[in-house]
Amino acid sequence: MSIFTKIKKSLKSENLVNYNKFIKNLEFDEKNSTSTHLIIKAPNIFIANFVKRKYLNKISELYEKETGIKPKIDIVTKEISHRPLTIEEIIEPTTPSVLIPEYTFESFIVGPSNQFAYTAAKSVAENPGKNYNPLFIYGGVGLGKTHLLQAIGNYLKSSLNVLYVTSEQFMNEFTENIRMKTPERFHEKYRNCDVLLIDDVQFFAGKERTQEEFFHTFNELYNQKKQICLTADRPPKKLYDLVDRLRSRFEAGLIVDIQPPELETKIEIIRKKCELNGIYLPEEIIEYIATKLDSNIREIEGMITKINAMSKILGISEITLDFAKQALKEHIKDKKEVITLEDIIKLIAKEFNIKPSEIVSKSRNKNIVAARRCAIYLAREFTKESTPIIAKYFGLRDHSAVSHAIKSFNKKLKEDSEFRIKIEELKNKIQIKKSE
Ligand SMILES: Nc1ncnc2c1ncn2[C@@H]1O[C@H](COP(=O)(O)OP(=O)(O)OP(=O)(O)O)[C@@H](O)[C@H]1O
User: Fold this and answer.
1) Can you tell me the mean pLDDT for 302-313?
2) From the CB of 183, is ligand 1 less than 6 Å away?
3) Region Domain II: which residues?
């Protein structure tokens, strides 16, 4: 009998009223668990939350009694394996401890905000140890750093010895091996891989012994032309508590950033997540989530899961916009509507040296058309107006004309780096106005 079956049996024998409802259908994820880190699958988010609140300590205790090991336990839902569970947890930064098969290049949506990082990661995966070494990916919370790092690992794991760890795991293992007087075991593991992927290296900050060890690991692998990829929440030059020689190693490779996704990219990501998880959401709800929530994709995923789970539990077959609004009510921060369509028009008119009225006119003058497209794009990014309202305001036929204008705009953003910089500057100006 497996240990997990024994644990379930003990929970049953303790006559827990909720055994059938909450414990019976829990499954042990053998493939992804280790002896110190257990992953348990629950049928849905509510059961998972309940088990976490009520039974986690008990399960941990029973496991320790059986094995002598105090485990770390993650309870995940079957729908989205490996996801942390409560909405609060989903919003919290969390990093997995194993390679997650779903994090691939194919499931990663590319837009102007992450194009550079994606291309660099793909290139590293296709030519490990040859093009960019190390690859350093940085960016804000929940923007896809781990996903890209793991995509490299998943791409290479069948042909090479890939090692994926968080900086914390690296540190814990190092400390543990020192404590057990087995440093050679640690060296054996880390200095003999072909690809080393370390997530969240900002946590090396201030840990001098770990940094020292990592420095040697780095050199050893680098000299053997093994690929090293790192992620952090900031660029190497801002990792202040890192020893200089390590920082300069990081800086010697390719450094790429991931920016918050543009609205279109966000919408695409939501579509993809729904598709991957077999969730159907009408377009208007997808757009609602994308415009109302910030850029943290993990948070967005949490909201999709929540809407889906609530609809199932309440037996609702068709999810309406009102239902979604209700479900997300408490999670949508009450941001004041500070940027209006008029603000955008004024700003663009000034930038393009034309009159505000010309932007909303029917003129086909090249400069005015460019200004209009830009204004439409920014209106979608920064105001809370729906696509039909924006169409009406700019004198366009209907919402599909808005989508068309945004598509052409995104194409230009992708192709023309000077243009991209100009738009970034405009976005910054709007952000400044927003925070005034
Ligand atoms: N462009 C994208 N396409 C598809 N999914 C994405 C994209 N960007 C982020 N995600 C998803 O968002 C979630 C959070 O991403 P990830 O864990 O990679 O973020 P992170 O940048 O590593 O965040 P943290 O700083 O908290 O570690 C993941 O489920 C990931 O699949």
Assistant:
1) 84
2) no
3) 69-97
